[in-house]
Design a protein that fits this description.
By secondary structure, the protein is of the alpha+beta class. It has helices at about 60-70, 75-80, 85-100, 150-155, 185-200, 205-210, 220-235; strands spanning about 5-15, 20, 35, 40-50, 105-115, 115-120, 125-140, 165-180, 205, 240-250, 255. It contains 7 helices and 11 strands. The radius of gyration is 22 Å and the shape is elongated. The relative contact order is 0.11.
Length: about 270
């Protein structure tokens, strides 16, 4: 029987006052919801296993939905009211889901906004993954100096045109951080990325303005490895450890370094 990974995302809106929580009929948009101003969150749980012979399920999505909708709203509302650090709240949220469902998820992803996520893995109780997204715009040209314009076009297509072209790049950074007794947070990570990457690459001609790319093709792959190197060095001496980076040059093309592990390669 093959082993599979099931992912389920549950959306909800939570107010600081739990008395404002309301059940909604539109579960796609999210429930529970709030009768007053509230914070919108998404939780994605992963469970790995073989399908049950009778039902064909790896895990019941109805059990996942119920565990999140019953176990988390009160904790989230209290956290909003008290101004709790989401990093320190995350273990309690995972424990609440585990208590409701009877099994700890392989991973639990908390999306606080489209560009900020926290991820806890099954066997890790002391650290979690902080994921943040950034954007920078830059131009480049791909070519080889020993080739004519025609030969470069054959090799690199429109990317070889002499005056170059631009991209609105997106950078996703995954950093492993301790849950307790750490002053490293998303603000600290943002400062590192802004100082080390964004200010260096944004609104630049990579071939002409960035020394690291003056003598080589600034491909997406090389930009990704460059970002990893700079961020990894910048995190030295902090409680954080870089897990990987992913860079998009458009919505169809992205590069990750190092590659994300497949499920059977993931370690505790």
């Amino acid at each position: 029987m093959p082993t599979m990974n099931l992912s389920r995302c549950v959306r909800l809106t939570v107010p600081a006052d739990p008395d404002r929580l309301r059940d909604g009929k539109n579960t796609f948009a999210g429930t529970p919801l709030s009768s007053s101003l509230g914070a919108y969150f998404e939780f994605t749980l992963d469970y790995t296993g073989e399908e049950a012979p009778e039902t064909g399920y790896v895990f019941s999505i109805y059990d996942i939905d119920r565990a999140i909708r019953i176990g988390l709203p009160q904790l989230l509302a209290q956290g909003l009211s008290d101004g709790v650090d989401p990093v320190t709240l995350m273990p309690s949220l995972r424990d609440a889901v585990t208590d409701e469902i009877g099994q700890r998820p392989r991973s639990m992803r908390w999306t606080l906004n489209p560009y900020h996520e926290l991820i806890m893995h099954e066997h890790d109780t002391t650290h979690l993954t902080l994921s943040r997204r950034y954007s920078f715009s830059a131009s480049h040209r791909l070519s080889l100096p020993g080739l004519s314009d025609e030969e470069n076009y054959e090799r690199f297509g429109k990317c070889s045109r002499p005056n170059g072209h631009g991209h609105n790049y997106e950078l996703e950074v995954h950093a492993r951080i301790p849950i307790q007794q750490s002053d490293f947070d998303s603000i600290a990570l943002d400062e590192i990325i802004t100082d080390g990457i964004i200010d260096h690459l944004d609104h630049r001609n990579l071939n002409l303005d960035v020394q690291e790319f003056m003598n080589c093709n600034p491909t997406l792959e090389r930009i990704t490895v460059y970002c990893h190197q700079i961020i990894s060095e910048s995190l030295t001496g902090t409680p954080a450890q870089l897990e990987r980076v992913r860079v998009w040059e458009n919505d169809r093309t992205a590069c990750s370094y190092p590659p994300a592990p497949t499920p059977h390669e993931t370690t505790a």
